[in-house]
Amino acid sequence: MNGYQKRIAELEAFVVSLKAQLAQRDAQLAQRDATITALQQQVAELSKQVTNLLAQVAWLSKNSSNSSKPPSVRVDRATGVSASLGKGS
To answer: CA dihedral in degrees (4, 5, 11, 12; nearest 10)?
Structure first.
């Protein structure tokens, strides 16, 4: 084997090594892509939950000073029953 043939063999071995590294990197990228997709789905789901919780907080934080309902039709939060204000018991 002369110098050129030896160098060609070295380069061919190097190419094989690079191809193996690329295959490994491709597998890592595919796994990373799958993880990103799963995380994006989680973020979307959690965003919906946050929106729902904010709506609940807004509803729960309403009081008589910021209610859009007149006093006669306000609902008692604890019982869910309409409170008839202004009438004696």
So the answer is: 160
Give exposure, 15-26, as e/b (b: 16+ Cβ within 10 Å): eeeeeeeeeeee
Residue 10 is classified by DSSP as H
In this prediction, residue 70 carries a pLDDT of 63
Distance CA 19, CA 39 (A): 30
pLDDT recorded at residue 4: 94
Alpha-carbon gap, residue 52 to 49, rounded angstroms: 5
| Mean pLDDT score, 76-86 | 61
